[in-house]
Design goal:
Two copies of one chain form a homodimer.
Chain A lengths: L8 H8 L3 H9 L6 H14 L5 H6 L6 E6 L5 H16 L3 E6 L4 H13 L4 E4 L8 H10 L2 E4 L9 E5 L1 H15 L3 E6 L5 H16 L6 E4 L6 H15 L6 E4 L2 H13 L13 E6 L12 E4 L2 H17 L8 E5 L2 E3 L5
Parallel strand pairs in A: 1-2, 1-3, 3-4, 4-5, 5-11, 6-7, 6-8, 8-9, 9-10
Antiparallel strand pairs in A: 10-12
Helix pairs in contact in A: 1-2, 1-3, 5-12, 6-7, 8-9, 10-11
The structure holds a DNA duplex (30 and 30 nucleotides).
Chain lengths: 343, 343
DNA sequence: ATCAAAATTTTACTCGCGTAAATTTTATTA
DNA sequence: TAATAAAATTTACGCGAGTAAAATTTTGAT
């Protein structure tokens, strides 16, 4: 049975009849030792359940086998889903992911970057707060730690960016909406927290111009990361004012749309594409909850798998390349339009 | 400026004119060194931005200043919110939280416990998967690491449990519903992932008996952590079959209710307490999204703050008490009924 | 059986810090 | 002002590994 009297690798090497350096080698790569040796070590491992002290292991390593994952806001299930996929890939590849959320707060994001630096991670996957981020803090961080940005791009920072192609999102949704009904207006926060929001507005304007349509941007008030509540309040307001320029609303993101839909429902405004409907609503992200809104939300979906896989692969290439890439790449994945009932 | 030539505490001590052990003491508790010493260290800190190597720090510590936080499913914003509050408290108290999600998978939960053990954390706050958890793995873990369970209780494991009082949740919702309309039936998964679900069913049955009402439990099929989809499918089924025993549905939890409401909407069943409504729906948890459902969801709310604060405080007492408490306590916090539009 | 190549072991260092015990400095009291 | 207690600091050693170089053993092909 596991008599856990083993206090260190020296003792474990003794009971398994192998020298300590060889045991050390085994723990770094079991296939790097002879088969018979490996079997003896594994036999001893069964009897004594010893695990190397991770702190001693990492003390002298320039880089550890840790990978930092930083997201801006964990109460958003979008990031929960991304994290799940990313963590899986990292573990497969023999890395140890550690997860952090800035919880929408700049100071917290900075603290995370700080403690991440002292963790000497092999690399970091960072989805920054965006507009709220302390740019110089992130810049300094990226100079010291091999970093791939994802979801939210900050010009020039990190060795690469992997995310979704906002233009693809918006052009698909705008084309679909204008093809099948009235011209969409664009519904967004006045001061969006996230750079994707700005790109989406620009893409909306560009697409409308290309189609020869007149654009309308509806800007609503509100700050912070409570997008649903902001969308709801904004929804009540524009519905009460009857200030919507068209009967078709394209929300900047799903969380805003979720709030907007709840305002529609409570205001008795029927949403959908049926003849009895007053409004069509569509959005972007394919948020995990968007299929459960009432009506279910027509949206442009992130390619979750492609984004997370590519982000991880890019980071691995970066790590193998010694922390630097020739030039900063931006990989953008197109959206897939998901037609549901809201538009 | 920060000439980061400082490679270790020795060198930093030199440039600040203080001995290394004193510097070490400073980093553990700045107030433990003389004011003049502190000022000299802090002056040097400004010039040289040195940070102690956390691995070297923790190598010889029996216990580190780390606190592990483990949740079963991070794509559920309920846990996102809990984590946010818990992390805040830990940081305030000078600990370093590290966050893990089992992502609904037993093997992953076990791996987390494994790597957590080798992190030698001062303590762990564990919200286990529940029914899917490997009980013996958790039991073994708790023997070695001071652990407080939260959200989901497993009989006898950990030094304490902190969570919500399911009986309070259900008795309030049942009493409210039966006082203001038809008797509620209880809508739940046939094989719930979480022990809270069982407690809620039992509480439902007990409350109905106390009120002299006939209970009806509606069990729907489905496994895993995709509760919304399960509630939706189950909803379509019971609505199609017209098998609901009453016009009032009390869902075991909000995520199930979110799915159920979407099924009602698509089936053209009007939910709410108005005269034109066919169904009332209520639930438990006050999930962050429950205010945005259509109609907004009447629910029994967790006392998020009380649960997270108490869990953290209990863990701190446990840590200060050397990892053991006299007897295992279970702290249950009552619910607060939140009346919205769905019932 | 022979011998080169591969794997393992030995030896001997290093790393960055914690910490008990000894020593010095500072503060307090008489 | 001197004696003494208290606090701060220094000395000296240990921790649990990584790792490089040299010596030795094992392996596998001939």
């Amino acid at each position: 049975m596991s008599q856990s009297e083993i206090r260190n690798m020296e003792e474990f090497a003794a009971v398994s009849g192998i020298s300590r350096p060889t045991v050390s080698k085994y723990f770094h790569d079991p296939s790097s030792v002879r088969k018979t040796t490996r079997m003896r070590i594994e036999a001893a491992l069964e009897k004594y359940d010893y695990r190397p002290n991770i702190y001693a292991i990492n003390q002298n390593r320039k880089l550890t086998k840790n990978i930092g994952i930083v997201v801006p806001y964990l109460a958003d299930p979008f990031f929960g889903e991304m994290v799940r996929m990313i963590e899986g890939r990292c573990i497969e590849a023999g890395y140890t992911p550690s997860l952090f959320s800035a919880h929408g707060d700049q100071a917290h994001e900075n603290d995370i970057l700080d403690s991440l630096r002292s963790m000497k991670p092999a690399g970091v996957l960072l989805a920054p707060l965006g507009r709220q981020s302390d740019k110089s803090a992130i810049e300094t961080f990226c100079k010291h730690v091999p970093t791939v940005l994802f979801d939210s791009n900050i010009e020039g920072m990190g060795e690469a960016f992997v995310g979704s192609d906002n233009h693809s999102f918006v052009s698909q949704s705008v084309e679909y909406l204008s093809r099948t009904g009235e011209t969409p207006c664009f519904f967004e926060m006045r001061t969006p927290a996230n750079p994707n929001a700005n790109k989406r507005r620009i893409a909306y304007l560009a697409t409308m111009e290309r189609l020869g349509l007149e654009p309308h941007v509806v800007k609503i008030d509100g700050t912070g990361w409570g997008f649903e509540e902001i969308g709801r309040k904004g929804g009540f307001q524009v519905l009460a004012e009857k200030s919507l320029p068209t009967n078709t609303v394209l929300c900047s993101n799903d969380r805003l749309a979720i709030g907007f839909l709840s305002a529609c429902y409570e205001s008795g405004v029927r949403v959908g594409r049926g003849p009895d409907c007053q409004l069509r609503v569509a959005s972007h992200d394919d948020h995990p909850f968007s299929r459960f809104t009432c009506p279910s939300l027509t949206t442009a979906a992130h390619d979750y798998t492609a984004v997370s896989d590519n982000a991880v692969e890019t980071l691995f290439r970066l790590i193998e390349g010694g922390g630097r890439l020739e030039n900063r790449t931006e990989s953008l994945f197109p959206a897939r339009l998901i037609m549901r009932d809201s538009a």
